[in-house]
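Anyone up for a design puzzle?
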């Protein structure tokens, strides 16, 4: 008993809680979640989503992180182009006549 209320123990995870709640009463609906994710993908920032939908911005950040874990790691950061390109201005690097500013040196 804690504060006059009975403690319950979850059989699956072993967590203690006071008032058992059905799992569907916690959290946001799948529709709200998908709308927030679509807003983020379309360029809206987290705090703007919070103002529009009323969902805390850290909740939206956690949803984005959860979805990012499901994406495949297809980004190839080490790929180099086969063709290189030089600019004409590269020949002028280091050819400055005055070493100081304003023509004083």
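Challenge accepted. My sequence:
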């Amino acid at each position: 008993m804690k504060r006059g209320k009975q403690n319950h123990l979850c059989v699956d995870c072993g967590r203690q809680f006071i008032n058992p709640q059905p799992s569907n009463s916690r959290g946001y609906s799948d529709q709200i979640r998908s709308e927030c994710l679509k807003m983020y993908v379309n360029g809206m920032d987290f705090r703007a989503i919070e103002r529009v939908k009323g969902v805390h911005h850290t909740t939206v950040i956690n949803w984005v992180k959860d979805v990012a874990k499901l994406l495949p790691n297809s980004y190839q950061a080490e790929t180099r182009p086969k063709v290189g390109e030089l600019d004409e201005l590269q020949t002028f690097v280091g050819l400055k006549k005055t070493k100081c500013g304003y023509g004083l040196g």
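A detail worth pointing out: Helices lie at 30-41, 46-53, 57-70.
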